[in-house]
Amino acid sequence: MSPIFVSQETIDRWLTEDRIDVEGERITLKPYGLAVELVPAVHLVQEVAGGGDEKAWLGKVKSIQEIEGEGGEHDPGSVILGESAYEVVEGFIGRLAGSTDPGLAESARRTLSQITPKDGLEALARHLVIS
User: How far, rounded to the nearest angstrom, does the alpha carbon of residue 34 sit from its chain's CA centroid?
Assistant: First the structure.
């Protein structure tokens, strides 16, 4: 299953709406019982220092580990890499957890393949079990 970016704001909203459970680096999508492993990441939305985009990161999602591995610095809301400074959206890269029950995933796949997602939670669940 291919990974997907989920913003911190979205995670916070789903928590407030009681649509997910959080346990460490994992969330469970309550309506489907799907477990999603989370890796801290950012979506780089704007270069703000005028230093260019030499690594061509603008518009991409990068894990914090990947940023630090390239010599970049992450602070909430920003990433600095060489002469470039980026405004970022905080969040996570989500992947279907390896411990997800195969029968549960197949049941969710059948259900979600027959609907048009009405919101972000359904879209995330569908992406995780269909792609």
Answer: 15
Would you say residue 13 has pLDDT above 70? yes
Q: Rounded to a whole number, what is the largest CA-CA distance in the chain?
A: 51
CA atoms of 123 and 118, how far apart (whole Å): 8
Which pair of structure tokens corresponds to residue 109? 């796949």
E strand or H helix that includes residue 79: strand 78-81
d(CA 92, CA 40): 4
Domain ranges across the chain: 4-130
Dist. CA 101–CA 47, nearest whole Å: 42
First to last CA, the chain: 6
pLDDT score at 125: 78
Q: Compute the mean pLDDT over every residue in the chain, rounded to the nearest whole number.
A: 86
User: At residue 118, what is the residue type?
Assistant: K
Containing 96, the helix (H) or strand (E) segment is strand 84-96
